[in-house]
Amino acid sequence: MIISRQFSFRPFILALLIVSTFSSKALHLFQHATSLPQSRLILFFPTFFIQEAVLWTVACFVLYRLSGNKCLSVIGNVVTGIISALTFVLAASQIGFYMVTGSEVRWDAATSVGNDPEGRKLMLSGLKSFLAASTLLLFLSWLCTPGLSTILNHWLSALFPIRSTDKADEEALLATAKGAFRANSIIQFWTAGAVIITSFLWLVRPQVPYSHISGAIPFTFFGALGPKSASLQVAGDFDFPLQKLIGEEYWEAPNGHFKGWAPGTKPMSMNANSRPEWASGHLPAGFQRWNESKKEKSPNHDMRKNETSTIRYNPVHDPLRITNLDQNVVEPLAQALKNHEIPINHIVFVMMESARKDIFPFQAGSSLHQQILSSHESADAETIQKLNSTLSRLTPVAEKLTGEQSGFSSDGDEPQTVWSDGVKNGMGGINIHGLLTGSSLSFKSAIINHCGTGPLPVDFMDEVHEEIYQPCIMQILDLFNQRKGPLPQDQTKESSEFHDRNWTSIFLQSITGLFDDQNILNEQMGFHKALYKEQIENISAPYYHKDMEEINYFGYAERETYPYLRQIIDETIANGQRLFLSHFTSTTHHPWATPSKFHKEKYFADGLMGKHEDMNNYLNSVRYVDTWLGDILQVLDDTGISNETLVVLVGDHGQAFHEDSPVSGTYENGHISNFRIPLVFRHPLLPRIQITANATSMSLVPTLLDLLVQTKSLNEEDSDIAVDLMNEYEGQSLIRPYQAMYNGRQAWNFGIINAGGTMLSVGSAAVPYRLILPLSSDFEFVFSNLDTDPDEKSSLRAWSIDELSSRVENEHGDKAVQWVFDAEQVGRWWVEERKRLWNHH
Ligand SMILES: *[C@@H]1O[C@H](CO)[C@@H](O)[C@H](O)[C@H]1NC(C)=O
Ligand SMILES: *[C@@H]1O[C@H](CO)[C@@H](O)[C@H](O)[C@H]1NC(C)=O
Ligand SMILES: *[C@@H]1O[C@H](CO)[C@@H](O)[C@H](O)[C@H]1NC(C)=O
Ligand SMILES: *[C@@H]1O[C@H](CO)[C@@H](O)[C@H](O)[C@H]1NC(C)=O
Ligand SMILES: *[C@@H]1O[C@H](CO)[C@@H](O)[C@H](O)[C@H]1NC(C)=O
Ligand SMILES: *[C@@H]1O[C@H](CO)[C@@H](O)[C@H](O)[C@H]1NC(C)=O
Ligand SMILES: *[C@@H]1O[C@H](CO)[C@@H](O)[C@H](O)[C@H]1NC(C)=O
């Protein structure tokens, strides 16, 4: 059949509107179908289309019934055309976003990303799927144009018959009047019936989740642009839910550096007695809470009234805090510390973009390995063997850093170019297993990693407008600098003990520093100096070269920072300083592009263009970054500082792919593969220790301080300060036995899910359960048991906590249900408490 027809404006506009809204709703329903009881889904089905039905009817009316008034008709056509075009763009974006990530667009988040120039580049990376979706929608609209407008017009004429004034028409009408009247009344009858039934269903259905499910573009879009709807929680003081665990019988008195524990007492500001001796004189930024008590004592500060009512964190009043600093350092470390010196003069802190624990290192027999093998189902043994040997060379540096073997019965033909580690057998440092990130949004994670602070559970980086409620490492190092003053007369920069030298803190990355206000955050966290793409691509930069290759929308590959890394280390040594260098890797970010000269492997059978394309690209970028980590360690060897440098390697968050979960990426996706991250404290003179702790990255800062103290890498005064500060953080030290439970209290683990304010991951070191807690009514509750389902292949989902708990009870028993109720309450309390501690209003 050949379709040839004239293009007509009004029917096409109508068809475009209907096809766009309908496809958008169909996709929306499909994404939520599994979390709803089927009977309810069928029962309330008609109510899901109320907004669309109204929109279509009004559009049809405006397009076809305003023709009496020429001016009104033109305006109506134009307005309908604009709304239809907007709806089409929104629907295409929604479908395109789904094709890339498997999840739902949120228009409020999209508009904030769109306001950020670097964010727009991120959005453009989805252009291909947007265009594909638009083409599809346009084609469908074109196909449906004649049919849809005929049907709708017919229906509309039946409902609202037109009184024609035309003579000829009148005659024609008279002839068919009887039949038409009958047909019209049937349509009217059914329409009225449908409207009544649907309205009734609409009145009786529950708000959550059906309001969210019924939302239709463009209404949801305009809704998101409008003022933010109030969140589920009420503002104000939130009492801690598990009151019987914080009763007076559990309180503890201060003891040495331990500040005591007495939650429930009125949070008071620190009095002069509890203020440590070091907290006098001028304090660097980050130490505001030790500054305040002084202010209160001087009466002439009335004008600062508002400031004194600022909320501060106080470990004594933290109902969740469990300390393990009273425990002994783990045995192999204690032994080594007795036997030889382990100097930490410098610290190189590498935060690794999207680093999953299961590829650090990649291991034979892992679930990922199984998936790769099964994509090669029909291959012969020789191909598989070759594949195995290719895979055994994926992360050789990570193997050396962690001391974990890849487990391949390897042929051992490691490429000559791989960094070779000179450490003795049984040495190399501490490798942590079981760690989860505290946030799947990179820069919130950076705050946890550098400051030991729980970030704000709100969308995006509002933290840059507030005070960080704990001192960051860089600020602690500044405090050390301040206390020391100039070198004693009899010492020079070169001859001084490193303990008496000043620290310098530098941040280095090869991508833009302007995305999400990262540059502001870094300044706020206390870095003395930061180098980003913007500095290294400056034509007058010292290592600028013409053929610098941008590999993704954020900037360059890490290798571009190599000469700067060398320069920073050389200068630090020459200046007689101690280095704290923080480096953020980036190639492992979407779209996982590698430099053009980098050889790309095909790990999956259909790796380069097929359904495993993303994962395959990711694995290649992982291999690239592994090589780069080798380069960093080589620089430490070459400059002769490796034996006195602690290298901390930590993932900012994991990364879920289609191979792991139905929704890929970190955005509004609570899947466990977004949370498992590596953490390594590498030092050639530290014994090789494998530690398992079901903790989050909140433990990083206290552990780092603990290591500096235990290795006697600080002078006496600094060491005292560090021991004191360790007792101020919420996390436990990972070089001491982790306390999963204490006096009935669990060591809770929280994870803020990208973009921050919509869902929270709640877990605990004491149980294998995990709850994804929705922070707005647009999301579901999700429960999993990591003992029986470590990869979260069959999580339970529900729209209310009661519905979820009955499912949990059926499958996991009473203990799990009780935990779910506790977790929900503790999670909600934690969210409000973070906002309070950040003084976020
Ligand atoms: C501490 O207080 C002093 C004087 O009020 C002020 O100059 C300084 O900036 C404050 N320091 C911090 C870290 O807030
Ligand atoms: C104190 O807070 C009030 C209201 O919150 C505000 O109007 C006033 O300007 C503040 N005063 C100072 C000194 O910041
Ligand atoms: C490849 O590695 C897997 C996991 O170690 C092993 O089971 C399999 O036998 C290996 N295949 C070949 C051909 O070496
Ligand atoms: C260390 O830094 C402090 C200020 O931060 C300065 O007063 C002192 O002179 C410095 N000491 C050395 C040895 O550079
Ligand atoms: C490049 O660096 C020079 C010298 O540091 C500076 O003056 C100039 O503003 C920079 N240019 C850009 C585009 O940032
Ligand atoms: C590091 O220390 C070990 C053990 O003391 C020693 O064998 C090695 O040569 C040192 N490496 C460097 C680069 O100084
Ligand atoms: C951590 O959690 C896992 C999964 O629930 C459990 O199997 C393991 O025993 C826990 N490890 C520790 C050290 O508590």
From TrEMBL:
Q: Which InterPro entries match?
A: Alkaline_phosphatase_core_sf, GAG_Ulvan_Degrading_Sulfatases, Sulfatase_N
Q: Which domain of life is it from?
A: Eukaryota
The major lineage groups are: Eukaryota, Fungi, Dikarya, Ascomycota, Pezizomycotina
Q: What is this protein called?
A: Sulfatase N-terminal domain-containing protein
> Quick check: keyword Transmembrane in the entry?
yes
Q: Matching Pfam families, A to Z?
A: Sulfatase
| Alphabetical list of PANTHER family matching this protein | SULFATASE, SULFATASE N-TERMINAL DOMAIN-CONTAINING PROTEIN
According to the record, the segments passing through the membrane are: 42-66, 78-100, 130-156, 186-204
Query: What positions does the domain Sulfatase N-terminal occupy?
Result: 511-708
- Which UniProt keywords are given for this protein, alphabetically ordered? Membrane, Transmembrane, Transmembrane helix
Which organism is this entry from?
A: Penicillium angulare
